[in-house]
Write a structure and sequence with these properties.
2 copies of one chain form a homodimer. Chain A is an all-alpha fold. Chain A folds into 4 domains: 36 residues; 159 residues; 216 residues, Phosphate transport system protein phou homolog 2, domain 2 (Methane Monooxygenase Hydroxylase, Chain G, domain 1); 49 residues, no CATH class. The radius of gyration of chain A is 32 Å and the shape is extended. The N and C termini of chain A lie far apart (94 Å). Chains A and B meet through helix 2, helix 4, helix 6, helix 7 and helix 11 of A and helix 2, helix 4, helix 6, helix 7 and helix 11 of B.
């Protein structure tokens, strides 16, 4: 027992000794995490600094004597406004600032009117009239916030309306200097709002519209990566069969539920003035349409993913037959998406390249049909066995259709948003034709540690095996497809 | 010309005459719309009234002389708190109220500390020290709002922290009564917050948790309606072929993008105390899991919908073969979902009924496989023609798998949330067995104006044709399935 107590004591002292170093470890880990988080998107750090700067600027209303003498304690409304209006994006700040400004103005005026009206009813009647007015306007404005259109754009304004009206009307009961008070508050709120908006626009601005623009392009890129990784997942190289799936095939996942963020960004983007490549009335709604189509495509991918994950595989012979057209289909559709994403990012039209890739993938759809037809099952048992493969192929064909719809929507956007024309289409399609000839055959992603020779193509991680196993009909159709593109 | 002028004049007077009646029309239309909107969810009107009541209550701080003498103009903080903290749900109000209370307390204390610290540096150094403190704490707290965990639960608290600290620290520079001011503000904020929380909880409360609970059950019901309407869409009765799709088949659409609302509700539900059938630590996270599975199922439906909408139909012979098992599958899976939804709504276990329906739909999956096998294509052209039908059937099988997963997740929930046990399982499964016998054969929804005889079953809009066309193997399997259920 004594030994035990001694051991415990020793253990306690040991822990006491270790405590500082452990604490240091925990703290350094936390600090590292925070720094990593800041590095992830340095705009977050910049935004925090901007809020600090805006706060320091409005605090001058207190520190500088002449300013304090003219505004007095109303300076606190400037501080309050800065804290509440400072949003991450310019659109957010403008939306809140303008809402706050107009709501304060109208509610303030109405409040002063209410106080004057109530005074007609004598000292006894005044609080009753004020109470009725505050109750009814407060309830009505609160109810208006439930209407989707008001909620979307003027929610904050309605809130501030209730706030200001109630405060002016109620505190007007106890002060005679209501107009001075209203003037001081309004002017400090305007000062706070203006400081915020200026800092937001002129110090490293974060534009909601630009974020939406990039997000849509990135989502299309994610889809492209998922499509291009699909073959490697569904037809893995023998040495690679494992339960781990390639992370790039999962990239589409975040698109499934991104609608909320996109809607918010589009809503804020409408408040923003023209900036950089975006004019004042940039067609933000079109981005939502494209994003919807991209999401539709991601839904298809979610279902496809189920087939990739299922342990059930179609018979090898059938797999071999459909592998080549499926590989071409997903690769070409993926490249079309990459071209579309690049076209959005650079805001330049690239219709020829996109259409060429889409045509190639459609040709591959034709080849897939031929391959499916040629894999006519010999027994009724075989029919059941190929059903999952057939379903997978069928959904992938739908994905190609989705890609075409996305390209049409982006074409529409490129017209409305004045995308600039780029390369001479003739040179381009000749280039793609060559590219296509290089690509004919089976393309498999090279794995780490795989000793396959790297090709000299622009995409460094692709290994091309040109083999003769493919049915002659398929190859014929394929080159036909390419010729069609050059025209 | 003269005639023209006269005509114009007459037209103008006419319009002037019509104006009041037109205005009346517009106004009545608007008022009707608003009333309709309120009727849609009367809780909106009640909430607006509640905000009005809370505002009237805190305005007593101004109207009642003794209260005004003790709190002075700080009463406006109570008004501000009521307006800002009043959220639609109890969880929202509690989350904002508690965040505001704690943030004001800590930031107020730190602010008073900062003012005392700054006074050591003399009148020249005071604003500099205060400025540095406000800048750094403001920036740090703003940065903390980017962390997902803080954003989710303490975003408002961090905002109020910056607000209070800045206001106390900056205005402390100009007043010597800082402690009195801090006390008055804190107490009025506590009064405002308490009034809000009490009104929110005790006057017709809207619980976020209950909303989430109902929403999940309703979404499952929507899926069930879509499933049950599927057969009628895909195999329309000859006299019904039209491009209009039944609205109930589209019900699943809203589920595709409901993640945001569900997450918000679950987040708010965690702030709520135990109420009614929900204990304090109700497993809200499990609802999100179920909602995720329901959404997965809706994704499948979105793809199925593409097949319903496509004009391409499989050959009639093939359609006839797969119609019966597909009808049973979708109907039984739909009934399983309805039973699950009811079990959630009533918070009572109904495992036997759910499992019986799932087993029935699985038996139908088996029959579908047999039907597919028996529709072994005679030529390779036929194979291509049945592909869309095969894909559709294949996705529908996945839907049945989804339904099973949903039922498992709800089973888990029912254990954690202490759902009550209901009927004696034996009686129930006998009842379902009988029900199943009645249902054997093809079930088609009865159309308005259709003179088919109505059955005496519980669902009044279903017409049952027991016919002999089905392959004997199918019928055998089907009754086998039923027997399995009775055991």
């Amino acid at each position: 027992m004594d030994m035990n107590v001694q051991e415990k004591k020793a253990g306690f002292f040991q822990r006491l000794k270790d405590f500082p170093s452990k604490l240091k470890d925990v703290v350094t880990k936390r600090v590292k995490n925070v720094l990593m988080f800041g590095k992830d998107d340095p705009r977050r750090i910049i935004h925090s600094m901007k809020v600090g700067v805006a706060l320091t600027l409005v605090s001058l209303l207190y520190y500088v004597r002449p300013l304090y003498l003219s505004f007095g304690v109303s300076g606190m409304w400037a501080i309050l406004t800065v804290v509440v209006v400072s949003e991450f994006t310019v659109g957010g700040t403008l939306s809140k600032g303008l809402n706050r400004g107009f709501a304060t103005l109208t509610a303030g005026a109405l409040g002063v009117g209410a106080v004057h009206l109530a005074r007609f009813f004598g000292h006894q009647g005044e609080p009753i009239i004020l109470g009725i007015l505050v109750f009814s306007l407060g309830a009505a404005a609160t109810f208006s916030r439930f209407f989707p259109k008001i909620k979307q754009r003027y929610d904050y304004g309605a809130l501030i309306f209730v706030l200001t009206f109630s405060m002016v009307a109620i505190s007007g009961y106890r002060t005679d200097e209501i107009l001075v008070m209203a003037y001081q508050r309004l002017s400090t709120i305007l000062i706070g709002g203006t400081v915020c908006i200026l800092v937001s626009i002129f110090v490293c601005p974060v534009w909601a519209g630009e974020d939406l623009h990039k997000m849509v392009a990135n989502n299309i890129n994610k889809l492209a990566n998922s499509l291009e990784g699909f073959e490697g997942e569904y037809f893995p190289l023998p040495e690679k069969i494992s339960n781990e799936t390639n992370s790039c095939v999962r990239e589409y996942k975040s698109i499934l539920t991104s609608k909320g963020i996109e809607d918010t960004l589009a809503n804020l983007a409408r408040w923003e003035p023209g900036h950089g490549r975006f004019r004042l009335r940039h067609p933000w709604k079109k981005y939502l349409k494209i994003a919807g189509l991209v999401r539709q495509c991601a839904f298809h991918f979610e279902i496809l993913n189920g087939y990739v994950l299922s342990n059930y595989k179609a018979p090898e012979e059938f797999q071999n037959k459909i592998q080549e057209p499926i590989a071409t289909m997903s690769r070409e559709a993926g490249e079309a998406l990459k071209a579309i994403a690049k076209s959005i990012k650079t805001m330049s039209k690239d219709t020829a390249r996109v259409n060429a890739h889409i045509d190639n993938s459609k040709t591959a759809v034709g080849n897939l049909r031929i391959a499916l037809k040629s894999s006519y099952p010999e027994t009724d048992k075989d029919l059941l066995e190929i059903i999952p493969g057939v379903t997978m192929a069928s959904i992938l064909i739908e994905v190609v259709n989705c890609v075409e719809k996305i390209s049409e929507a982006v074409e529409e956007l490129s017209g409305l948003a004045h995308f600039k024309e780029t390369l001479d289409p003739k040179i381009l399609s000749a280039e793609i034709g060559q590219h296509q000839l290089l690509h004919r055959g089976t393309v498999k992603p090279v794995l780490d540690g795989d000793n396959g020779e790297e090709d000299t193509d622009s995409s460094p991680h692709v290994l091309i095996n040109v083999h003769d196993e493919q049915p002659p009909a398929t190859t014929g159709k394929n080159s036909l497809g390419v010729e069609k593109n050059i025209v």
